Structure formats: structure tokens, C-alpha cells
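re: that chain from earlier
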Amino acid sequence: MATGMMNLMRGLTSVAGIAGLSIALEHRQRYHVQFLAQEQSQHTLEIAPVLDHLYRLWLGQGDWPGLASHKAMALLSGQLHTEAALRAYQECYLGFALLYVLLVFLVWGLPQRYTVPESVQRTSE
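^ sequence. v structure.
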């Protein structure tokens, strides 16, 4: 019965950890998307040549101008979301690594209990 309870607790804590990581990733990714979009809007002069190159690339493949512009913006948006996801994963895994190191040091700092093994207790009687 105790083994079953331990397995249940292990399963619940792993599910809670995964859910917590998913929530943290989602929030951090949203933050980075907003941050990178703001950075992108402030540096439109640097992005304009890239968009123009992509626009001309798709025009050369036979797309009409509206579609070529849409494809260029969609590609840039996809790159922005990929970079935001990468930054979010890096932050979350770094946070969990630091939390793990902190917990290891806290566990090392716990006072140790010294118990006498049962075999030693029987021989002393």
C-alpha cells in the first residue's frame, strides 16, 4: 500500500512539474514575442532590406505583390516566434537548474539523523 502511495505521489509531482514548466514557458514566450516585436518596430531600417529581399524573391517566383509581401512578413513573424521560444526555453531551464542547485544545497544543510541499525541493537541486548 505504501508503495502505491509513493508511486501516486511521484506521478502527481511529475505532472505538476510539467504543468508548471508549460505555464512558465507560455508566459515567457509571450513576453519575448512582445519584447522582440517592440525591438523590431524600433529598428525598422535594419529590417527593411531583409523584407525587400524576401519580397523580391517571391515576386521572382511568380507571386503577386500582395502575396509576396504577406509571405515576407509571415516568414519574419515565424522567425520572431522561433527566437522567442528559444529564449523562453533557455530561461526556464536555467531557472530549473538554479532551483535544483539551491535544493541540493538545502538538502546538504539538513541535519543528519543517526540511527542505530537493528542488528546492532539486538547484539547489545
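DSSP finds four helices and no strands in the chain.
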